[in-house]
């Protein structure tokens, strides 16, 4: 093998939820060829400009136009589940992207109506790096005797300002099953309202967005510290030890902090 760049094929023997975002992302180029990385991931290093780090919003937040997107889930049609006559569906929306953008929310459950369930619920998301983000739409059947079961899904790439892959307005989104095959007649009706925030936006809008992102960053940092303490506690437990009193107190504080910050985020 010689030095240089190669394109290596990747054989997938099983289609599952792990591959949903990959299939969705490559809608962007018609599922052929390749997709260029965002410019800030391809450009040469420059003095005074930090290298892109998906875990550090300060390395990209001033170099891309963030997005405020509002999704109104109105209804669906022809939802069914193999082996069960009537379903009780709900819709789960998720933003997939850099850590600060990752967010998941769901509608209420419509009992015993898979033909034309109606939700009419709206949700708003802040997306700091739209070019790396996808919108996941998954419909579940809420089984009262077990875990919710996914019955239909679709992942849509979002895209940067000026080249968005999602169009605003009313859209009927066809659903695929969990193996990636189209579900005949099954779709979700939703309304998309999106606004890219450029440096020319009014100060109040930009300030509101910045406050939301600061809260999201604070939540991520607190959750990361909490996870480290919990992992340390589990490791010590295996050896018959426990965290120090100061660490246990810190864990309690972090739990309260995460809860308070998440509550503020919901109000935003």
Cα separation of the termini:
54 Å
Q: Quaternary state, please?
A: single chain
SS content category: alpha+beta
**Biggest sheet, spatial arrangement of strands:** 4-1-8-7
- If helices are DSSP runs of H or I spanning 4 or more residues, what is the number of helices? 4
| Percent strand | 25-35%
Sheet having the most strands: 4 strands, antiparallel
Labels describing this entry:
26% helix; alpha+beta; 4 helices; 4-stranded antiparallel sheet; globular; 8 strands; 268 residues
Q: What can you tell me about this protein's structure?
A:
The protein is built from 4 helices and 8 strands. The strands form 2 sheets. Strands 4-1-8-7 form a 4-stranded antiparallel sheet. Strands 3-2-5-6 form a 4-stranded antiparallel sheet. The chain is globular, with a radius of gyration of 21 Å. α3 (203-238) packs antiparallel against α4 (245-267). It is of the alpha+beta class and 268 residues long.
Short description:
With 268 residues, the chain is of the alpha+beta class. It is 26% helix and 27% strand. The strands form two sheets. It has a four-stranded antiparallel beta sheet. A four-stranded antiparallel beta sheet has the order 3-2-5-6.
Furnish the topology, listing elements before pairings.
Elements: H1 20-25, H2 39-42, E1 67-77, E2 89-96, E3 103-106, E4 118-127, E5 134-141, E6 149-157, E7 169-176, E8 182-196, H3 203-238, H4 245-267
Antiparallel strand pairs: 1-4, 1-8, 2-3, 2-5, 5-6, 7-8
Helix pairs in contact: 3-4
């Amino acid at each position: 093998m010689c030095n240089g760049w190669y394109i290596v094929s990747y054989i997938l023997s099983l289609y599952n939820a792990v591959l949903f975002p990959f299939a969705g992302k490559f809608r962007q180029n018609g599922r052929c060829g390749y997709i260029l990385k965002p410019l800030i991931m391809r450009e040469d290093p420059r003095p005074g400009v930090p290298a892109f780090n998906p875990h550090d919003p300060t390395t990209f937040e001033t170099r891309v136009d963030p997005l405020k997107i509002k999704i109104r889930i109105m209804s669906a049609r022809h939802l069914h589940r193999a082996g069960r006559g009537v379903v009780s569906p709900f819709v789960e929306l998720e933003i997939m992207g850099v850590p600060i953008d990752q967010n998941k929310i769901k509608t209420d459950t419509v009992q015993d109506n898979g033909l034309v369930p109606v939700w009419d619920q709206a949700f708003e998301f802040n997306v700091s790096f739209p070019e790396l983000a996808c919108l996941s739409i998954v419909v579940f059947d809420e089984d009262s005797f077990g875990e919710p079961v996914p019955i239909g899904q679709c992942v849509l790439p979002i895209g940067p300002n000026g080249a968005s892959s999602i169009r605003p307005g009313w859209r009927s989104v066809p659903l695929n099953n969990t193996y990636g095959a189209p579900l005949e007649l099954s779709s979700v009706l939703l309304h998309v309202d999106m606004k890219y925030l450029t440096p020319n936006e009014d100060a109040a809008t930009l300030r509101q967005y910045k406050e939301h992102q600061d809260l999201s960053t604070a939540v991520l940092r607190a959750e990361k510290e909490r996870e480290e303490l919990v992992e340390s506690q589990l490791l010590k437990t295996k050896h018959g030890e426990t965290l120090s009193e100061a660490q246990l107190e810190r864990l309690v504080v972090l739990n309260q902090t995460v809860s308070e910050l998440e509550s503020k985020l919901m109000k935003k």
